[in-house]
Amino acid sequence: MKKIASAYIIVLSLLTMPLAQAQVNPNMVQAGIDALTALTLTNAQVAAYSKEAVKEMDAKNKVAGPNDPYAKRLKRIVGRYRSVNGIPLNYKVYLTPDVNAFATADGSVRVFKGLMDIMSDAEILAIIGHEIGHVINKDSHDAMKAALQRSAIRNAVASQGGTLGELSRSQLGGLADYMVGASHSRQQETDADDYAYAFLKRNGHGVLPLATSFEKLAQAGGKVPQFLSTHPDSKSRAARVRAKAKNDGLKR
Ligand SMILES: [Zn+2]
Hints:
This protein is mainly alpha-helical. The protein contains twelve helices and five strands. It has helices spanning about 1-15, 25-40, 45-60, 70-80, 115-120, 120-135, 140-150, 150-160, 170-180, 185-200, 210-220, 235-245, and strands at about 85, 85-90, 90-95, 100-105, 110. The chain is globular, with a radius of gyration of 21 Å. The protein starts with a helix and ends in a 5-residue tail after the last helix. The chain binds zinc ion (ZN).
């Protein structure tokens, strides 16, 4: 495994080296390339790494305790939604002013105080529905897998044959940051919106809070929250939800 790691480092240094200096045994380069493509991860491994990265996030952020008003409010909002499609969900509030929320492949949902301060209960549930959509649609899984494929972390993972537990704090921190900042494609965002809409409708909630949450964010302007950092913009997402609701004859 050590060998694979060093071959990988050679390829990495090759990539960062001016071409004229790059005179290395081509077999070695090939070995490095093989190592680059050798890292395969099972779904369970990706979920396990997600869990570790969330643990790191939880350690880095101020988590609302069970008696904190924010934690109590979130508990009330998510109510019976303790698992979806067989994936157990766990929720926590970070007592930080960011307007943000994220969910990870292992079913961890994290909501920031800043978001809860500007949204109604129904809007928070709608946003959580969107985040759960990313989990169900495997977007969170794909984002974590992509993070694990990144150089520094990948090297550590590959050298251990994909076993967990040996990542350093800083590597875990890197994974955690990547997870929170993970931006999904336009299509993934639209699909997650559709999931949230169907989730609310199916469970007897109003669907329009999904639209009003986007409208609030559009109105707030300025800093776009990370979880909505990709296009389409909040306004057109809200309009899309409203059009769907009209089409379905839903008034709330
Ligand atoms: Zn999203």
